[in-house]
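Forwarding the complex inputs:
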Amino acid sequence: MTDFVQNTLDGLMIGSSYGLLALGFTLIFGVMRRLNLSYGPSIMVGAYLGTFVYVQFGASPIAVAALAVAGAVLAGIYVERLCFAPMGPGAGIASMVSSFAIWMQLEQAAILVLPRHTYPYPPLAAVAPLMLGPFMVRLDHLVMLVAAIALSTGMHLLLYRTRFGLALRAIIGNPVAAHLVGVNVRTAMLGAFALASGIGGIAGYLVLAADQQVTSMFGMWATIKGLIAMMIGGLGSIPGAVLGGLVLGIIEMHGQWYFGSQVRDLIAYFLLFACLVLRPGGLLGDAPTRETAAYGRRA
Amino acid sequence: MDDYLIGVLSNIGIISFIALSAYVLLLTGEISFGQQAFFAIGAYASGIATALWHWPLAAGLAWGAAAAAAAAALVGVPTLRLHGLYFAIATLAFAEMVRLLFELFHYQVLIDGELVGPNGAEGFRNIRYIFDNNIDATEFLVLVYVLLSATLLGFFLLERSRLGVIFRMTGEDEVLAELSGVAVGRYKVLAAGIAGALAGIGGGLYAHLTTYVEPRIFDVMLGVHSLAYGLIGGLGTALGPLAGVLIDIGVLESTRWFAGYRMIVFGGLVAVLLIVRPRGLLDEVVVRNIRKAWRRTSPLRLGRHEKQGQP
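Prediction (whole assembly, two chains):
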């Protein structure tokens, strides 16, 4: 029983990092109805930028965090300009494939700058883990959970309480109508993209600070875990992203406990596949109609 | 021919199979990120057949293709309802599951005092058929290109057949195809099966050429590359994916001009081409124009005109 609770706690903590990653992912999908597979590699560009400055000049954690977010935002803007802005309506699949091609590009660029497999990453704070009776919780993991809840709340407020959010919701409803009533659709989309990449940058920083190392697999890891969490929670749903991340984390941790770490990723992919086949809308999303699916098809 | 050139040409031929595999699905309008799974199944199945069961190469390759086709058709059924990005992500998830399952797959037999067979993440060594039977690199190269030519011939016949029309119709507009009386579901599973078989043959050839496979080879990057070949080469003809393979492996990988920057150049190329030529270099319009030009200059012209001239 103790193990079960501890595993669930661990799952919640690791799941909050998945949820954080899924938040930025789902914002892009919600606004554009398109999948940005370069999301993880964009975060990796920021993370590598921070690592580079940390390794070379011994920068402080705050500077590293700022660079991680700034790098992710810049890389995100680059992806938006190249893979999303030039593609006409109905070419969502072209955007997705294009973002996959840019994935390779960003990853290779990062590896050219820092060629080793693993680099150290500055920890958030060196504090002993918190003990709740017999259960252990790491403080930096707790920060991730709080950040996931805070950021999702912040995003909700942004969408429902600000003019920018109103513009985004208008675009989500109908991009053409939004344009007709004076919303600058292209700028708003770029803004949403930059914001999402920034959220990804924060998520990436928190995850890496908890791990205290960054590897060249990080871009792939961030895209895949964020994608699975988002799909389970429901494409385009903000609470769904956090919920999906937590569900994924808890299931992964229990799976690892019972079947070993080799099976952990297998379980995650199986969840994704089963979710797509049985309930493509995810837990909190709408099921995709033929129309929304066709919206993403090539013209 | 020197060994390096033979190696490059063999690689181009083998990768062409998985590019054509992704192309079949592109024809029916679906994007797959997961054809590497069937490449892997073909590689393992045919490797097991020749190395562990001592089958002849032809039977091993056929068995690999059949296993991959069966797996592809089996996955085709549950993913039938999915479209666009949902289908793409489902294939990605499936392919990664297959890769991770091969990391757990152990099946070893003692042959000549040596354990042979798939050994999880360690991979599958000693697929020695071409050494044991004294097949040299040039002969293997000929085998690859004979099979590839036969496949291309199949594609040219397909383009002229009812089946080819149905595939393109489904790709153009599935609802319209269904309304015109096409049993879309059945044909999509068929397309998935054909695509699986092609990838399986490629995988079988790959395993026998390199004599060694490991799960890590069959990662997402292989799948994305095979998809990208068709997209940059063009969707108008089966020669399109081949052109894509030539550009990537023939120019970017094999010459050393882009060492270290290959992914940067290739990724950028794909992204830019998707903007300026969304259906690739050899798209339907280009292919139609080439056909017209060919007819104009071809000696068969007279015959065709007479035929057309008749009331």
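Chain B has two domains: 3-232, 284-311.
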